[in-house]
Design goal:
Layout lengths: L3 E7 L2 E7 L5 H7 L1 E2 L4 E6 L1 H15 L14 H29 L6 E10 L2 E11 L7 E8 L3 E2 L2 H14 L6 E3 L6 H6 L3 E3 L2 E4 L8 E4 L4 E4 L1
Parallel strand pairs: 3-8, 7-9
Antiparallel strand pairs: 1-2, 4-5, 5-6, 6-7, 9-11, 10-11, 12-13
Helix pairs in contact: 2-3
Length: about 220
């Protein structure tokens, strides 16, 4: 049993609403909302990425999302605990990298791009994309991706951003990443393939998962 905050949709009004202590972890999972239609993805500066990830760490995904009786954890609560810890850890890495990137010399032959997912101005996810200059066959790498543990449908929008950034940079939308084992299935569902211990996405070869929109000149995950 635990208390938390959740994104709720009631009568088309979306906002933060409290969950009572009587909510079980099973109830929590049914409360999670697919927010794709309410989320905006924005490419941001390292400074804004740092601010957004710090806000997530200290406010929108603060400790009251993680209140358990640790002596009585069921399997769903164990999965929730793991998901929260992984997201929190990755957000910490994103925050640190964004801060370092804002202070460093940007002439080392690589480029880092940051994107933040916003729900009505509130940061709910972030991504770091690494692109190596002068490496023709090197795929763009999703170094870090984390989303708020109470939202569904945000990660795929961040991956869409990364695919289209790769396409924009002349790298055919191809990506690589090294996810947690527990996240592999989610990436497989987006069209990623297991290759040499990591994962790769070649969107042009996965028209069952990715469509090229001739009107917008963008890839869209389907």
């Amino acid at each position: 049993m635990f208390r938390s905050k959740s994104f709720n949709i009631n009568n088309r009004s979306v906002g933060f609403g409290p969950l009572t202590r009587s909510k079980s972890c099973s109830d929590m999972y049914t409360t999670l909302v697919n927010m794709k239609t309410f989320i905006t993805i924005k490419e941001v500066s390292p400074e804004e990425a740092f601010y957004a990830t710090e806000k997530m760490l200290t406010e929108t995904m603060a400790e009251d999302w993680f209140y358990f009786d640790f002596l009585k954890l069921d399997k769903e609560q164990e999965r929730w605990k793991m998901r929260y810890n992984q997201a929190f850890s990755i957000l910490n890495c994103l925050s640190t990298n964004a801060k370092l990137q804002s202070m460093r010399d940007k002439t080392d032959g690589s480029k880092k791009f940051f994107a933040v997912a916003y729900f009505r101005g509130i940061p709910v996810g972030a991504l770091q994309l690494l692109v190596q200059d002068n490496h023709e066959n090197e795929l763009s790498e999703v170094s870090f991706l984390a989303t708020h543990c109470g939202i569904r449908g945000c990660g795929v929008l961040l991956i869409e951003y990364a695919v289209n950034k790769s396409q924009q940079l002349g790298m055919e939308g191809k990506l690589k990443l090294s996810p947690y084992d527990e996240a592999r299935q989610a990436y497989i569902n987006m069209g990623f393939m297991n290759i040499n211990g990591g994962m790769e996405l070649h969107p042009a070869a996965r028209n069952d998962k990715w469509k090229w929109n001739k009107i917008t000149s963008r890839y869209e995950c389907c």
